[in-house]
Amino acid sequence: PQLNGAAVLARDGEALAGFVNLAWDGDRHAFLLDLVVAEGYRRRGIGRALVAGAVEQATAAGCTWLHADFAPHLAPFCRSCALPPPDAGLLRLHR
Q: What is the rounded CA–CA span in Å between residue 32 and residue 80?
């Protein structure tokens, strides 16, 4: 596979409505990072579309696994994107 890190963007004209970063371990694992949808664009399906775009890119690159860590309160969003429920270790380093 070849995936040199990517950002999937959602735009509204010149405005950036949202983005997600897609990282790669050099083998078969891709990682969703930093999914953000601007406040005025939320609840319109943009986050799901960004996840779908990242899944498409990782699949096209030949990745076997997509890692996605979300806070537990985002479990409904994860289900809507066909992602497993969030259950990752998270250590807060600074307050």
A: 16
